[in-house]
Structures are given as structure tokens and as C-alpha cells.
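Forwarding the complex inputs:
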Amino acid sequence: MGEPRRVMVNGRALAVVRQPNAIYAARDICPHQGARLSDGHATGTALPCLPGEEIVFGKIGEILVCPWHGWEYDLRTGRALINPDKIRIRTYPARIENGRALVEMRVVPKRD
Amino acid sequence: MKTQTGVIDADAHNYINSMEDLLPYLSERWRTYVRSSGMQMPPVSHLPKLYELAARRDAWPPGGGKPGSDPDFMREQLLDAWQIDAAVLNPLVGVSGIRNLDLANAVMRAVNEWVEDVWFSADERWHASITVNAYDAEASAAEIRRAAQNRRFNQVLLLVRSHAPYGRREFRPIFEAAADMDIPVGIHFGGGTGNPITAAGWPSYYIEDHTGMTQAFEAQLISLVCEGVFQSMPSTRVCLIEGGFAWLPALMWRLDKNYRGLRSEVPWLTEFPSEIIRRHFAATTQPMEEPEDPAYLLDIFKMLDCDRFLLFATDYPHWDFDAPDKAIPSVVPDDLRQKIMRGNALKFYAFQNL
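Prediction (whole assembly, two chains):
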């Protein structure tokens, strides 16, 4: 499973996670206390269930866990698993083309 | 100050004078056993309480017996004196400390039958919690289903210092039975089954015992939430009795914070623990926390963010009794005061006759 790597693009730091069938890119900063998400772990998570039921480990490879306080983010949406409406990381569309990782970032031109 | 009317007392204590009082409710086997062994009432605490039986000096009945043992005197000194419309009796008997499970279960049932026989017949304002044996959840569940047929039994009584935290699955039958009978589970100050009574070991003094009781309440609340009791049984309601409430906001913050990083360990929790606490818990007021500036309490109420959370209680006949007309400071607005003194308990316990 691909672990996150820190990549600089246009002066912006990204945490890029490459999986066998997908690639994800997000700003490399946790909105909580500013840790580099690229120092974290790309993994899955325990899916919701009732007590006593078998705990299923799912979303494998789609969860980025912050290295400091363990906040979990869904790499497909950027939303935190807890409080997803309020807590999210900036993600960018990414794809593999001809063996190269492409990340779409809108560049806002400077006025001057 | 004029006494208020229509108060509901969510925690008062009736006492059994001795095992002799329970003999009529025991089978011949256990009657003989208790008599021949000279068995004493099982205690619910470990340290001398400075005041005998932790009682107000004036609560000893003139006709003899323990404080809280005489229904007529208690009616006069509690219900009539303070115009209390209903009181929930919590008989404090160390049933869970009786190691012989069959005997413990026999005493459990005897206590409930004694309550029904001696107290419910004495005044219709008496309601009561069902005594159970925490060491035998199945037997307790059966007893809850039996006793709660009488709706004057409107709660299950567990003592906060247990042999293991109540969220653990061994206790589920108790919570399932309470939910099935549509009554809350009350967790009351006291108890002791061998574990040290503070999280740091044995203290020396009753003042430490009493003040540190909040640790046990915290442990129970954390356990019930984290073990997913309210996900398994969404209708479960829990009342924290005599544990205070000012510590709750800090615990909610701490638990919510940890939930953000540790959620995957307890995947049944799909919302913040504080939301679960606000929805499923209530707490009695006594012993009311008394900050130097009473207005701080308003801040605590705001942090709890739940105006149905608190239920007034006197804790009669104990030495730390809260008087209905004095305990809630004057800074508390009237509408909230009304809810605390009556309205919240009315809803929480669904009294049939009020």
C-alpha cells in the first residue's frame, strides 16, 4: 500500500498517495495543528458497526491518518471521518497518465 | 423563604434496620441461614462517615430505629415538611458485596419486596429504584422484569463503585431489562466490591472518599458511552445520582477530543460522545456544587447545554441533605429552576400519578 509522500508543486506542499488503482493529492497540512500529513499513514479504517459485531476494516488505502493526533481523513473527499461537515483537507484531482502522476491545481494569477 | 410547592425529590433513602426486617421476604432456607449465621446488613461503604450512618442528627426517628427507617417520620420530615409530590427512594444495601450469589439474589428480591410492602403502602408519593445484584446480571434482569410490573418502581439502582465498569458486556442484561421495562438505570454514590475506592488506591479519610467519588462516576460514564451501550439499546437512559455535575463539561471535552483520534477503536460511536451524553444521561443535583460565586453555575449549565439534564434531590436523611428552598442559588432563572425542581424529573421518570 502506498505511503504518502511530500511533493512540492508551484511552491505548494502536497501529500501524494499512490495506490495500485488510484492516486490522491492533498495539501500537506493538517487543519488541526499543522502537522505534515505526508508524515502520516495511508491506511483503512474500522467501519461503523454495533458492539459485538465483527469489526470490518474497510476503505483500505483511502484513509490518511495525521501523524500527530490520529485524525482520519477520507482521501477521496478530503473530509475528516469525524465532523466531516466542518473539518476537511484541501484535495486536488489527480490521475496517472503514461506512468506520470498528474495533479490538477488551479493557479490563481497574481495581480501585479 | 417560602418553601416551594410541587417539588420532586430524585434521591431519598429508606433504611432497613437489620436483617430481621427482611426475614419475612426470605425463603425458609435463607431465613434459617441468616438467623443461624447472625448475618448483618451488608455495607455499602468502607470508611467511618464521621456522622453515624451519614445521617442528619435530627433524622433519627423519635420512636427508635435508623434514620430513614420509619415511613411515618420520614413522610413528616421530608414529604410534608417540603411539600414534595414524589420522591424516589434508593435503598442502599450492599447486595453486590454478598459473595454467595444465591444469598445475594435472595436478599435483592427481599429488599424490593420490603420496599413495596412497607413503603409503597405507606404513602403514594414514595417511588423507588429496584435493587439489583451487579455480580449476577441475569438474575438482576429477571428481578427488574418482575419488580417493574409495579410502576412505582421507576428505576434500576446500581452503585457507582462496581467490580467492573457497567458498560462492559457482562452487565448488558441489566440494561436490556431496564430498556424493556422502559425505566432508567440510576447509578448512585457508594458501593465497593474490593477495588480500591479511588483510582490511586486507598485514601485515609471520608472527606477523600466523598470528594473522590466523582472518579467512579466518570469511569462509569466513559464506559457506558465507549462500550456502545446506547448504540445497542437506544432507549437506555441513565441517571447519575449524587455524583455532582460540574465535572461533566470537562469530561465531555476530553472525551470528544480523544474521539477524534481514537474513533477507530470504538467504531460503533458515530457521533461525538458529548451528544450521546446529552441525549441519554441525567444527573441529580445533590450534593450541589457550591462555587464561591454562584453565578459560575450558570456557566456550567451553559456548558452542559441541556436544560433537561438536572433533577433536584435532597439525599434525605444524610448529613449533606440539600434543602429544596435553599440549594439552588437565586441566580438560577425561574424557568430553569422549575425544570430542575420538578419538570425534568416528571419527564425522566414518567410518574403515573402526577
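The beta strands of chain A are 5-9, 12-19, 22-27, 41-46, 57-65, 72-74, 91-92, 94-97, 100-103.
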